[in-house]
Write a structure and sequence with these properties.
Rossmann fold, alpha/beta, about 230 residues, two-stranded antiparallel sheet
Length: about 230
Amino acid sequence: MDELLGRPDGFSVRSSLRERFVVLRPTLERLIPNLPRKAQVIYPKDLALILMWGDVYPGATVVEAGVGPGALTLALLRAVGPEGRVISFETREEHARAAERNVARYYGAAPQWTLEMGDVADGLQDLTVDRILLDLPEPWRQTDLAWRALRPGGVFLGYVPTVLQVKGFVDSLKEHGGFACIDTMETLVRYWHVKEMSVRPQHRMVGHTGFVTTARRVEAEASEQRSPAEQVE
């Protein structure tokens, strides 16, 4: 380890078995699957989808619920920057403490982050925010509260693993009448093996991990607008 400390990224060392290694700081994509945790992390491919389709931008005020080991928290803190605000809700003490440790170790001081112990339903009643991102088994329970807490045009996003949960969430958004542009998607990642004349897909890939559903907060009379996916049909 003494050979590594204080060196710049990109240098190489040899192990005791004379194998050569290139030393680099891990990117967020490399770090997330290896976070110390007692709960499942949101995989990097889904974090990318959440940040882009959730339209998380510098300076935004974002609520997340279901913190787990803090994978999404780390990504959100980077995305909103020092001028933004991330408010996290977690009901399990061990998950909250794990998230605190991971943020402190892998992000550093985060004065723009607030971690609340308790139900997001209680916290949303007194907030006005730009984005609400839920990693919860029943996001539809928060649909009306999310509408009340979101600014006009804000994004409400749910991350769930099964199609039955998707159905429950989308039905609640449509029945509420205050959401438009409702879309559900997943992403699959397949790496490729490229070596000389051997160019082929890797034998293993990162398949289904979860569904991302997004909706925009609108006035009730505007909710009949069709989503981009529906307009193609």
